[in-house]
Amino acid sequence: MSADDEHPDLAAMEQAQEPDLDRGPVEAWAAKMISNPDRAYRAMFYTATVFFLVTTLFPFYWLFMVAITPGRELSEVGALTPGGFDPTSFITIFTRLPFHRYVFNSFLIATVATVIVLFVASLAGYVFGRLRFRGRNPLLLLVLVTSFFPPAAFFVPLNRLFNTQVAVLEPIMSEGTLYNTPYAIFIPVSAIFLPLSIFILMTFYSQIPDGLEDAARIEGTTRIGALFRVIVPLSAPGVATAGVLTFITVYNEYFFSSLMTDGRPENWAPMLEGILAFQGQYEVDFHLMAAASIVAVLPVAILVIVAQEKIVSGLTAGAVKE
Amino acid sequence: MSTDTQNDGDSGRLVMRPLNRLETVSEQVYAYVLLIPAAVLLGFIAFYPLLNTLWFSLLGDDVFSPDPFGEFNGFGNYADLLAGEAQLPQQFLDVGLSGSFPFVEMGTPFLQQALFVTLAFAIISVLFETLIGFGQAYVIDQDFRGRRWVRVAIIIPYALPIVIQAMIFYLMFNPTIGWATDLMQAIGVFGDNPLASSRDSFFIVLVADIWKTSAFMALLILAGLQSVDRSLYDVAKVSGASPWQQFKYITFPIVLPALLVAMLFRTMDAMRIYGLVDATAGCEQVPSMTCLVITALQGSRRWATASAVAFLTAIVIGLLVIVYLIGLRGSEGGVA
Predict the structure, then answer these.
(1) Could you give phi then psi for residue B61, rounded to 5 degrees?
(2) Is any Cβ of chain B less than 8 angstroms from the Cβ of A150?
(3) Region(s) of chain B under CATH 1.10.3720.10
(4) Lowest mean pLDDT among A106-110, B166-170, B328-332
(5) Span B45-100, pLDDT tens digits
(6) List of chain B residues whose C-beta atoms are within 8 Å of the C-beta of residue A146
(7) Option in A192, A276, A301 nearest B163 (CB)
(8) How far apart are CA A249 and CA A243, in angstroms?
(9) pLDDT for B213-225, tens place per residue?
(10) How far is A8 from chain B (nearest CA, A)?
């Protein structure tokens, strides 16, 4: 801008569209932005993107820094740098505690819950989405209502129920109770996450043209067959969305997972107990907790990377119709 | 169908007979039959326990007997909870009227009252999550190179297990290894050990929740954004609308119903916060409503009081849902 400073009149004549005088770099930048707002919006967009990327990813980065710091030098961990370098934490978590068993427990519970939810919600979603019958709206409302009750409202009786000895169960279950078994976790979480899947599947199933189902029936499939051979495959994106969302939510669930077992891996304690177990009685192995967290987050992170298009498109289809 | 079954063996016939019966029933009956599994699951896990909780909450506590319920107590537990006289380390609600300004008196500190802690948490967190989620959704709705990876990065906190989310923030604010405590102390906001102070812990839980669940909001709002007809923007551009005007007159009104639904879900979720609190600061510091249920249950074996707290929680959430549904009815195309 120095040339402009010396010859303000000349500069003004040259830049007819920007007649102002004496500009610092900031003002000049601002003027450029005003004359060309698209640039300003573009700059804002990139700033926002970078800001969101840094804020979402930084905690993971820092967790990794803690995980690779040796146990003795934990107080040296900075905001950006590790306190040392010792990747053996990622092995120690499997030797000190059977952390793989915890993760396996969680994985199994989430898988079984997902299968149950998808099956039950498919039937219910088909009924609500495609059939006309008396009592549809009140029943649908009843399903919606369950989704707003807090898990705590179910917990006291369930806790009592699962701790009651049932003679029938004694041959299969230790002590004849459901406490300390995977059933105590996946039965309640399946029920609690069922309404969401019913709603997602309901919207998808209702969009399949009637003609396709009729054709299948004329070809000779049973009513149930038409549901599982025609409606469900044609709604594959919706089923995938419901499945992925259910799996993620069950895997991440805290309330029942932390209260329905005594925390021992052989008693089907899920992954969260494993992470908290590194918080020993006398010393807390922060670096091991961090390493365990990173290992436990990998399955869902991979799932999100693979299925993100599905999640977004599934929710979009649901949101439009609601 | 019947010819098929005749060819099958006896075992096949056992399976096929009820299925054949289904072929002939009316649509009405068929619908009810298909709803049986859902009804069993929801009845056993949701409706039956809910009624049970309601019944338990009307009984008295009997801390010393093997069965922790005393005799019928009517609404005694509710009265105690609402008057701040429950025998718990934290109170559900404890305000009195006073003669001087501001006319209400806190019997227990604000952040030790479950109702206020939870409401404050829900309102503040949902507000920030909506704003940040909107920003994030707007970013990942644009077309640019590397969009796929930016999208993954932004929604990944949503998929994070609660215990790990809690762990990250617990470690960050841990006085020994975390850097965040030093930072906050330098600004003069925090005390020495933030995880042992109600006010600081509340802030930590809030930040942790906003960090994770903004991504969820972004997902739901993105779903709304993608349902906007792109040609509307072309029309707007031709008429000379600025991006801000496009947002104000096209994007926002169309997204509003989806936004309200997303906020409804988030508010319901925020009102039941437990895991994040339990794994970071602990229920003594930030006694959310669900926390209070667990404290009453495990800390002092007051099962009846715990049931009453649980039911009150459900009532408070129900009231909030009604407020939202009224709001949704106002905006067109809501779920209500």
Answers:
(1) -80, 145
(2) yes
(3) 110-330
(4) B328-332
(5) 888 888 888 888 888 877 777 777 777 777 878 888 787 777 777 777 777 666 65
(6) 42, 46-47
(7) A276
(8) 10
(9) 998 888 888 888 8
(10) 32
The residue length of chain A stands at 322
What average pLDDT does this structure show over B27-33? Answer: 87
* Partner residue facing B171 (CB), from A156, A286, A297: A286
Task: Give the residues across from B104 on adjacent strands.
Answer: B97
Please answer yes or no on whether B37 and A275 come within 8 Å at the CB atom.
no
- Smallest Cβ distance to B293: which of A132, A155, A157? A155
Beta-carbon contacts of A230 under 8 Å, excluding residues fewer than 6 positions away, are A208, A212, A213, A216, A221
**Chain A residues near residue B12 by CB distance under 8 angstroms:** none
Question: Do the strands B59-61 and B104-106 form a parallel or antiparallel pair, or are they unpaired?
Answer: unpaired
Which architecture, in CATH terms, is B110-330? Orthogonal Bundle (1.10)
Distance of CA B312 to the CA centre of its chain: 15
Test the B interface: residue of A55, A56, A187, A258 with most B CBs within 10 Å: A56
**Which tokens is B72 given?**
């019928």
pTM of the model: 0.83
Kindly state whether A182 is in contact with chain B, defined as any CB-CB distance less than 8 angstroms: no
Mind giving me the DSSP string for A235-291?
Answer: THHHHHHHHHHHHHHHHH--HHHHHSS-S-GGGT--HHHHHHHTB-SS-B-HHHHHH
Q: DSSP assignment, residue A165?
A: -
φ and ψ at A99, to 5 degrees? -65, -30
Contacts of B224 in chain A (CB under 8 A): 319
Query: Closest residue of A to B28, CA-based?
Result: A133
Residue B183: predicted pLDDT: 80
ipTM of the complex as predicted: 0.82
CB contact under 8 A, B261 and A275: no
State the burial class of residue A17 (Cβ atoms within 10 Å of its Cβ: 0-12, 13-18, 19+): exposed
* Contact check, Cβ <8 Å, B53/A154: yes
| B157-166 pLDDT, tens digit each | 988 899 999 9
